[in-house]
Amino acid sequence: MESEMERYVGPPTTRYAYAKEFWVECPKCAKAARVIKKDLMGISDDKLVCQHCNYSETAEDRVRYTATVSRACRNCGESIEVSIPNNRVKVAELKYSCPHCHVPEVYKPANTPYRLKYSIARLADPVFSLPLWFQENVKGDTFWASNKEHLLEIRSYVTAKLRERQTMRITTMVEKLPQFIKAAKNREVVLKAIERMLRK
């Protein structure tokens, strides 16, 4: 009979269960920081907190607006196209001189919101786009985890020699793990990678 240490008895959780917190590289001190998501769908109350340098910011701090005017000049009728990005607040009025007749006019622009991103890294958190803290190359494949809880659950699964399906109702997080993590031949190298990440 398999012992409890050899049998995986983890919770039947989906990947979304580990999407409320992301460990990332702090943009100020480059140490581990946390992105805390309040809502899986929205971002308004999400925040970044670093316990090393005490840096913090909210998702709202990263919101910018692009003010756009696209219309015919009131004076000469020629087309006016102007776009001004990176405004911290919505622009109510925009004074602009027509490039054709040079007559200045005040317009009410459309304001399109967007969020500034820290990086374009593929393995980044969904709010600030900061590189994930827990990631490492394993035999040419990238192994990553959202947070420490996620990483420890993967370790429990990899350590177990007997892996039984926890539920038939949903596809669990461990069932969606890449094959290189699940492969018995990679158990030792994956576990060593996990230990290195936990020591970071």
The SSE order reads: EEEEEEEEEEEHHH
Q: In total, how many beta strands?
A: 11
| Coarse shape | elongated
Summarize the biggest pleated sheet.
Answer: 4 strands, antiparallel
Mean pLDDT: 91
Sheet with most strands: strand arrangement: 1-2-3-4
Q: Which strand-content bin applies to the residues? A: 25-35%
**Unreliable runs, pLDDT <50, ≥5 residues?**
none
Structure at a glance:
The protein is of the alpha+beta class.
Topology readout:
Layout: E1 21-25, E2 32-36, E3 47-49, E4 56-58, E5 63-72, E6 79-87, E7 94-97, E8 104-107, E9 110-115, E10 134-138, E11 141-145, H1 148-159, H2 179-182, H3 187-199
Antiparallel strand pairs: 1-2, 2-3, 3-4, 5-6, 5-9, 7-8, 10-11
Helix pairs in contact: 1-3
InterPro entries: Multihaem_cyt_sf
Protein name: Replication restart DNA helicase PriA
Organism: Dyadobacter soli
